[in-house]
Amino acid sequence: MTRIIGGSARGRRLSVPSTGTRPTSDRIREALFSSLDSWLLSQERSWLDIWFADLYAGSGAIGLEAASRGAANVVLVEQQSGALKTIGENIKRTRLSVVTERSNVSQWKPRHAFDVIFMDPPYSSSDQEVAETVLRLSSLLEANSALFVIERGLRSGDPFDRVDPGYFHKKWDRIYGDTRLWYGHLVGGIE
Fold first, then answer.
1. Does 25 map to a domain?
2. Bridge-partner residues for 119, per DSSP?
3. Which of 8, 40, 139, 143 has its CA 20 to 30 A from that of 49?
4. Which of the residues in the chain have pLDDT under 50?
5. 135, burial (CB in 10 Å: exposed 0-12, middle 13-18, buried 19+)
6. Structural domain boundaries, residue 77
7. Which sign does the torsion angle of CA 31, 119, 53, 99 carry?
8. Is the Cβ–Cβ distance between 85 and 59 less than 8 Å?
9. Residue 167 backbone class (left: φ over 0; alpha: ψ -120 to 50; beta: rest)
10. Using CA atoms, how far apart are residues 25 and 177, in angstroms rounded to an integer?
11. Beta-strand runs (E) in 37-113
């Protein structure tokens, strides 16, 4: 069972698409948001002023979790119709305010700069494809203050090194079973 683990919608159950997605486990979401809470504290910021993007949103669980914790604005980007239907159901169930955009992430044109960009591309995506998406979004968003968090399989390489080691700075990574979360930002951005 997938559920919201913190904030105003804590405990609300979420549906997951029957095919085509790989939901992030509650354990990994809890660890992710614990890391983000610590990062926000280190930046002397709160969720109330955070613009959050959940790319390859699937069920929308990550973005809805951010909204539940009080994120100022949340955008869920997904292209699969089954997943979009599930996201709609989960928005109704949680009564959280988020924006859903139907788009292939590789073609998505954001209309605003974001503070946190979470990406959970299909594990079949190559490291190079993920790196190219990160680089493209960075240039579109002028995201020198954005923290990118990328969920990948354990065998995947560091997506920030593939962009250009002098362009992106990996802050840290964490391993949870067969999943790794990579955290990074543009060099010269936030520390």
1. yes
2. 55, 150
3. 139
4. 189-191
5. middle
6. 2-186
7. negative
8. no
9. alpha
10. 11
11. 51-55, 73-78, 99-102
Give whole-number Cα distances, 39 to 27, 43, 46, 47, in Å: 18, 6, 10, 11
Evaluate whether residue 67 is within a structural domain: yes
pLDDT of residue 163: 66
Asked if the structure places residue 191 within a domain, the reply is no
User: CB-based contacts of 190: which residues, under 8 Å, 6+ apart?
Assistant: 43, 144, 145, 147
> Kindly report the CA angle at 137 between 139 and 94, in degrees rounded to 5?
145
**Are 137 and 121 contacting, i.e. CB atoms less than 8 angstroms apart?**
no
Q: Is 70 helix (H, G, I), strand (E, B) or coil?
A: coil
- Closest alpha carbon to 189 in 151, 125, 150, 138: 138
CATH number, domain at 145? Answer: 3.40.50.150
Which run of H or of E encompasses 168? strand 168-176
36 in Cβ contact with 63 (< 8 Å): no
Look up the pTM and report it: 0.91
Q: How far apart are CA 85 and CA 26, in angstroms?
A: 21
**Residue 190: its pLDDT value, please?**
47
Total domains present in the chain: 1
